[in-house]
């Protein structure tokens, strides 16, 4: 019997950092490290850098994506961007529901649900971010919060439509604080995410779904986090801004593929 292994995907989230020039210089040095049939390396970059980076990574396995998009296909929404514009610029994926968007720009699950649908329509892979706040964690509400976010953000979608979905579990209390969740905590929640997806969609979808962990991942904890069976990849903010750290994490992640044989 051939055993199935989920892909390992390492995504950098650059947030509002890096000019086009800085981004191009980073990517040109990253390209030689990224190999075919190995760890997937994705970069969620500022809108301004998408087009030029997408050109630069053509014929390489590197994927360029966006950090947000609007839920409409077009319209009078000053300052917003549509999925089809990102796709045309060369984006392959888009982060949706990041906790900074939820907290600072009041995005709710219904809005995120409309964005997921629009991203799929535009041919972008949605990377749906879910995670509980510190208060919710301390109140023992993690599973309830995660279940609600998954259910509401993926409402009215069917398993067949979600084959390209990636889920990123990002406990809000771990993002940008230098203190990641322990591998055991992340594993427990990510296994729960898979269970919810199996119950709500199908066990086939849940089995093949890439679920990333994000929240203060760095060169010291990446390998241990990835050693957990339900952690298929990492979503990395701060440590993805340094070429040296990001390359080290990408190289460390190769051990997950090697351990799968
Ligand atoms: C993020 O913003 O998605 C993130 C995980 O940030 P950091 O790695 O800096 O905690």
UniProtKB/TrEMBL annotation:
Q: Does the keyword Magnesium apply?
A: no
Which reactions fall under this protein's catalytic activity? D-glyceraldehyde 3-phosphate = dihydroxyacetone phosphate
Q: Please name the catalytic residues of this protein.
A: 98 (electrophile), 170 (proton acceptor)
Q: What are the GO cellular component annotations?
A: cytosol
Give its localization.
Answer: Cytoplasm
What is the uppermost EC class here?
A: isomerase
From the UniProt record, give the pathway where this protein acts: Carbohydrate biosynthesis; gluconeogenesis; Carbohydrate degradation; glycolysis; D-glyceraldehyde 3-phosphate from glycerone phosphate: step 1/1
Q: Which GO terms describe its biological process?
A: gluconeogenesis; glyceraldehyde-3-phosphate biosynthetic process; glycerol catabolic process; glycolytic process
What EC designation does it have?
5.3.1.1
The protein in question is named Triosephosphate isomerase
Q: Which gene encodes it?
A: tpiA
């Amino acid at each position: 019997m051939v055993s199935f292994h989920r892909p390992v995907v390492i995504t950098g989230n650059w947030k509002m950092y890096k000019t086009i020039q800085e981004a191009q210089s980073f990517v040109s040095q990253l390209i030689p490290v990224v190999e075919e049939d190995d760890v997937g390396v994705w970069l969620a970059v500022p809108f301004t850098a998408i087009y030029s980076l997408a050109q630069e990574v053509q014929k390489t396995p590197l994927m360029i994506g966006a950090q947000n998009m609007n839920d409409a296909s077009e319209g009078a929404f000053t300052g917003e961007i549509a999925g089809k514009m990102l796709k045309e610029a060369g984006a392959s994926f888009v982060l949706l529901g990041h906790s900074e968007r939820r907290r600072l720009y009041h995005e709710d699950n219904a809005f995120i649900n409309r964005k997921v649908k629009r991203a799929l329509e535009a041919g972008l892979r949605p990377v749906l971010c879910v995670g509980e706040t510190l208060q919710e964690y301390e109140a023992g509400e993690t599973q309830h919060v995660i279940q609600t976010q998954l259910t509401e953000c993926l409402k009215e979608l069917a398993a067949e439509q979600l084959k390209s979905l990636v889920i990123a579990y990002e406990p809000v209390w771990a993002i940008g604080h230098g203190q990641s969740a322990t591998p055991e905590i992340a594993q427990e929640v990510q296994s729960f995410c898979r269970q919810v997806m199996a119950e709500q969609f199908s066990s086939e979808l849940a089995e093949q779904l890439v679920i990333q962990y994000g929240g203060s991942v760095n060169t010291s904890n990446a390998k241990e986090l990835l050693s957990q069976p339900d952690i298929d990849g990492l979503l990395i903010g701060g440590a993805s801004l340094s070429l040296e750290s990001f390359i080290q994490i990408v190289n460390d992640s190769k051990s997950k593929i090697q351990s799968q044989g």
